[in-house]
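# step 3/5: fold
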Amino acid sequence: MAFIFTLSSIAQVPQLPEGGDKDLHALLYAGLAFVVARALTGAWRTRLTIGLVLATIAIAGLYGVSDEIHQYFVPPRQSDVMDVAADTVGAAIAAVGLYVWSGIIRGRHDL
């Protein structure tokens, strides 16, 4: 979260290709979701539940909202609802991917 906050504090960001901004948002928030999910489970080998997946997505999505509010106060940056959507989609993809992966790993240990 501190890394994302620091990036949001930069007034002049490099120009990205069309749509590249949303890809970057999704990638950053996928990373955040990975860290949040692991923190919520408390261990690498603990299975991720649907509840924890939803909590991970909610935490990352709410942080995305707070990040856009923060950017509103960083001239000449601006807030964008589509950035929040990209943040949430990236977090959801990572959280669901971890859920599937934890099921596969858990399945191997049950054999």
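# step 4/5: annotate
Residues 21-110 form one domain.
# step 5/5: archive (pending)
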